Amino acid sequence: MKVAIYGAGAIGGWMGVKLAQAGHDVSVVARGATLTALQQHGLRLIQGGETHAVKVTASDKPADLGAQDLVVVAVKGPAMASVAARIAPLLSAQTIVLTAMNGVPWWFCDGLGEDFAGKRLKPIDPDGAIAAAIPSAQTVGCVVHASCLVDSPGVIRHHQGNGLIIGEASGHASERVAALTATLAAAGFNASASEQIQRDVWYKLWGNMTMNPISAFTGATTDRILSDELVRNFVTSIMLEAKEIGARFGIPIAQAPADRHEVTLKLGAMKTSMLQDVQAGKAVELDALVAAVRELGQLTDVPTPYTDALLGLARLHASTLGLYPRQ
After folding, report:
1. For residue 206, what pLDDT is reported?
2. Which of these, 71, 108, 106, lies nearest to 88 by C-alpha position?
3. Where in this chain does the record put each Ketopantoate reductase C-terminal domain (predicted)?
4. Can 204 be counted among the known catalytic residues?
5. Is 136 exposed, middle or buried, given 0-12, 13-18 or 19+ CB atoms closer than 10 A?
6. Could you tell me the domains of the chain?
7. Residue 297 and residue 222: Cα distance in Å, rounded?
């Protein structure tokens, strides 16, 4: 396959190396120091004490790369408007766009049934430009269960996990998802197909939407957040709001918040990706993780006072640092 990676950060870079190792023709849209590193040294992955390097075609101009069979979009939410404006040269009518991103994606409502299909969440895609540029019919969602870090531009370090769950944005099973799952499995991923990817997105979000922003504005690792009784109770209240929202649009969560807390505590002193972004001076993806949940609460008539408080605190902190421009 011809595969383009749009966003050669931790997850995109990891996926790009493994797909190239499996024999696929991998190219990367990159810029700045990352582009220079890819052109000079290729894309590199540190895993199991070994460094693996693969040659890739890299450019800051998608038109240089041409139409692809598969485009892996692995950027943070704040970058999606720019991606949508530039992605067209990579797409043909047959191209699959695989979105390996955290939080609520722009296509989330398309797989929630007639009452929600076609609705656009303003925090994610305020003017519909992303949905117009990347048709839902060509979009496959991907929930990543892996931990990777960028050591330096073009150099990715894999820590743990190898899971990819994929499914149609429409929320239905398809032959192309089955075929893509087999392709990813052959490349060494623990890949599985979902009959409704929105369920997997929502379940992962249920933990991420609290740990990420709270760590970002406190500087605390996840073990410290959950070890403080008052903060843990705040987290639990937010999760109960999100649980009720999910139940109303048809994605109930059987677990209690305390069950997820136990899972998170087993990960130890984890520094979330949003805390890493704040420390690196990068824009934070509050819209996909928190603001979208707040809007889904409004659409389902679920009051969200705790989610509102979380969003307000995190937004104020990030905007004060210049890392969240929208108000």
Report:
1. 95
2. 71
3. 197-316
4. yes
5. middle
6. 2-195 (3.40.50.720), 200-320 (1.10.1040.10)
7. 25
